[in-house]
Automatic annotation (TrEMBL):
<feature type="repeat" description="PPR">
    <location>
        <begin position="331"/>
        <end position="361"/>
    </location>
</feature>
<dbReference type="InterPro" id="IPR046849">
    <property type="entry name" value="E2_motif"/>
</dbReference>
<comment type="similarity">
    <text>Belongs to the PPR family. PCMP-H subfamily.</text>
</comment>
<dbReference type="GO" id="GO:0008270">
    <property type="term" value="F:zinc ion binding"/>
</dbReference>
<dbReference type="InterPro" id="IPR032867">
    <property type="entry name" value="DYW_dom"/>
</dbReference>
<feature type="repeat" description="PPR">
    <location>
        <begin position="259"/>
        <end position="293"/>
    </location>
</feature>
<dbReference type="Pfam" id="PF01535">
    <property type="entry name" value="PPR"/>
</dbReference>
<dbReference type="Pfam" id="PF14432">
    <property type="entry name" value="DYW_deaminase"/>
</dbReference>
<keyword id="KW-0677">Repeat</keyword>
<dbReference type="GO" id="GO:0009451">
    <property type="term" value="P:RNA modification"/>
</dbReference>
<feature type="repeat" description="PPR">
    <location>
        <begin position="362"/>
        <end position="396"/>
    </location>
</feature>
<feature type="repeat" description="PPR">
    <location>
        <begin position="126"/>
        <end position="160"/>
    </location>
</feature>
<feature type="domain" description="DYW">
    <location>
        <begin position="578"/>
        <end position="670"/>
    </location>
</feature>
<dbReference type="Pfam" id="PF20431">
    <property type="entry name" value="E_motif"/>
</dbReference>
<dbReference type="InterPro" id="IPR011990">
    <property type="entry name" value="TPR-like_helical_dom_sf"/>
</dbReference>
<dbReference type="GO" id="GO:0003723">
    <property type="term" value="F:RNA binding"/>
</dbReference>
<dbReference type="Pfam" id="PF13041">
    <property type="entry name" value="PPR_2"/>
</dbReference>
Length: 670
DNA sequence: TTAGGGTTAG
């Protein structure tokens, strides 16, 4: 650096010095301006200006100041440069002032304060200067100010530039005002020339999409004279967000040059739409195409692996992340995604290791870890982490509270949950949403306070959603309360008429108290609505990361006989320790013998037997299930963990159960 | 000036 300055100082060529200085300022953005002061003064000396006209000197000065502005990293530096701008008599130069305002806004200085003040001091603002302010309000709000400024600008007879419309669309998108957006759209056509501008088109697509008018966005796209990869990607992402992967895929196929962002939009689209296998397939195609990846790609793929819940996928993507530039310890996005993934793959210990290794943690990292602990029934750990978080600068958000409340719910910590719920808004500024009421309904309901839960639901300030009533219905089954179940189910059948799970919960609740007539009435209702029960389905991980799937009653596996024998043998040994089949887990009015037979074909039992046969002695057995584990299977898992001396981890659709030496981490409370 | 983003519940 010193050498370079010496060479530059010795140089007589002003343009050489100038361009080198600009390069230096841009590249060494962290170097304080003062350090480079000697260099900054150099080209401004009277001597070196000699061969240039006044106008040229002015232009050089302007571009010089702008390059210094670009190098600023703190507000103080900007203030210093601002003072310098005054000294040099450039405070009326729109070009320089525009750049100053832009930098101020980028540093989150409130637009209405410093930037707007600087703007007011310019006597004849040009369109760019007007626009940068419009853009500033479009970024920070109040967004109405963007529109107001635009009309002021027009009243003063200043014509817009294309950036003016981009800025306006940004503001309309931010307030989801499609009506205003289409008025601005009309202006772009009326004034002429702007509607065909690439930037304007792209921001217009973005605005329509944000306002939920995907078709309008598509129309703009179809009519654009010129498109770039950004136009395509905007629309692809919009389709993925709306769940239309078909249209997203069609567009993607037609995209002439696909860059990393476009590929990532597809990978993450599949991941967000619960198609994790497709996401991984696409990711591999992306890698085969030699496209680089970044933290956003990794986050999506990691989320897909989390959904699959299998250790082999987890280890595979962990290796990729570790060997990339975005290592979990150094990257808060990748780190947080990994915490979630390990929790969902049943390895909460590894999730916590990742959490501890992270140099920076944000609300995603904390919330993911809290939710992870909650999922595994580690409520005390979740709550401790929550209070640790409060000691940092990271503020809890609505997800963090869902995490702590569900942690309380999973272990029956009613008082702690009530306390947190009562202070979440007052002390932490998080306004309870329907999700939080669902957690409360779950917490109180599970713990047996069904009436109190019902009261909360009936008096909550917003309309209860499916999750809220669903929580109550689940609790009604646990506590065998068909009266509350009937009330909740009637709401659920309206809100979610096609959701089979609600009908089944109601049936099971009736069955639990022997009201078989009601059971058949609900079944008839289901048949009338053409609803079919989801078959129970379990997966078990065996050697080399192979995953075996079993449906309830499955007799298609080549090892079926061995599986059945192993299961019968296991149950016999369990009976010797006091186990009795739980007939209440079969919601059918059939004989006890038939109930026993049905119990033996539950998918998680088949998976367990297969796991025992096909994994090494002493290793952990990991099972995933699409539905909630039934009570009978739960007690079989408990017993099996003791007599086979195996740790068994079951992930059902609610949470994780860790069975160790005859005890489940859920404390039989799930 | 414009694109892709990780955590939530029955």
């Amino acid at each position: 650096m010193k050498k370079m300055i010496a060479v530059l100082k010795a140089s007589k060529d002003l343009f050489l010095v100038q361009s080198a200085a600009i390069l230096l300022y841009r590249r060494m953005s962290t170097i304080s301006i003062l350090k480079l002061d000697g260099l900054r003064k150099l080209p401004l000396s009277t001597q070196t200006f000699a061969p240039y006209s006044e106008l040229q000197k002015q232009k050089i000065l302007e571009s010089h100041i702008v390059s210094i502005l670009h190098g600023c990293t703190t507000l103080n530096q900007l203030k210093q440069v601002h003072a310098h701008i005054y000294c040099k008599g450039l405070d009326q130069c729109c070009y320089v002032v525009t750049k100053l305002i832009r930098m101020l806004i980028k540093m989150d200085v409130p637009v209405h304060w410093y930037p707007h003040l600087v703007f007011r001091q310019v006597k004849n603002p040009n369109p760019f200067l007007w626009t940068v302010l419009i853009w500033g309000y479009g970024v920070q709000g109040p967004f109405s100010e963007s529109v107001h400024l635009y009309s002021c600008m027009r009243k003063k007879g200043v014509g817009p530039v294309s950036f003016t419309f981009s800025a306006l669309f940004k503001a309309c998108g931010a307030v989801l005002d499609a009506c205003l957006g289409s008025q601005v759209h009309a202006q772009t056509i009326l004034i002429g020339g702007f509607a065909s501008d690439l930037y304007v088109g792209n921001t217009m697509i973005d605005m329509y999409v944000k306002c939920g008018l995907l078709d309008c966005g598509r129309k703009v796209f179809d009519e654009m004279a010129e498109r770039d990869v950004i136009s395509w990607t905007e629309l692809i992402a919009a389709y993925t967000r709306s769940g239309d992967m078909k249209s997203a895929g069609d567009l993607f196929d037609g995209l002439p040059i696909k860059d990393m962002v476009a590929w990532t939009a597809m990978v993450n689209g599949y991941s967000q739409n619960a198609m994790p296998k497709k996401a991984l397939e696409f990711f591999e195609r992306m890698q085969d195409a030699g496209i680089a990846i970044d933290e956003v790609t990794l986050a999506g793929v990691i989320s897909a692996c989390a959904q699959l819940g299998a250790s082999n996928h987890a280890n595979w993507i962990r290796d990729i992340a570790e060997s990339s530039r975005f290592r979990p310890a150094n990257n808060v996005v990748v780190g947080s995604a990994l915490i979630d993934m390990y929790s969902k793959c049943g390895n909460v210990e590894e999730a916590y290791k990742v959490f501890l290794s992270m140099k920076e943690r944000n609300v995603f990292s904390y919330s993911s870890m809290i939710v992870g602990f909650a999922m595994h029934g580690l409520a005390h750990e979740a709550i401790k982490l929550f209070f640790d978080m409060l000691k940092t600068e990271v503020k809890p958000n609505h997800v963090t509270f869902v995490g702590v409340l569900s942690a309380c719910s999973h272990v029956g910590m009613v008082d702690q949950g009530r306390q947190l719920f009562s202070v979440m808004e007052k002390c932490y500024g998080v306004v309870p949403t329907a999700d939080h009421y669902a957690c409360m309904a779950d917490l109180l309901g599970r713990a047996g306070y069904l009436e109190e839960a019902l009261k909360i639901v009936e008096t909550m300030p917003m309309k209860p959603n499916g999750a809220v009533w669903g929580a109550l219905l689940g609790a009604s089954l646990i506590h065998k309360n068909p009266d509350v179940a009937e009330i909740t189910a009637s709401h659920l059948f309206e809100l979610e008429p096609d959701s089979i799970g609600n009908y089944i919960l109601l049936c099971k609740t009736y069955a639990s108290v022997g009201r078989w007539d009601d059971v058949s009435r609900v079944r008839k209702l289901m048949r009338g609505r053409k609803l079919k029960k989801d078959p129970g389905c379990s997966w078990v991980e065996v050697k080399n990361g192979i995953i075996q799937e079993f449906l309830a009653g499955d007799a298609t596996h080549p090892q079926t006989r061995e599986i059945r024998e192993a299961l019968e043998d296991l149950v016999e040994r369990l009976k010797a320790t006091g186990y009795q089949p739980n007939m209440g887990s079969v919601p059918y009015d059939v004989s006890d013998e038939e109930k026993k037979r049905i119990l033996m074909t539950h998918s998680e039992k088949l998976a367990l037997a297969y796991g025992l046969l096909n994994t090494a002695a002493g290793s952990i057995i990991k099972i995933m299930k699409n539905l909630r584990i039934c009570e009978d299977c739960h007690s079989v898992m408990c017993g099996a963990s003791k007599i086979t001396e195996r740790k068994i981890v079951v992930r059902d659709n609610m949470r994780f159960h860790h069975f160790i030496e005859g005890v489940c981490s859920c404390g039989n409370f799930w």
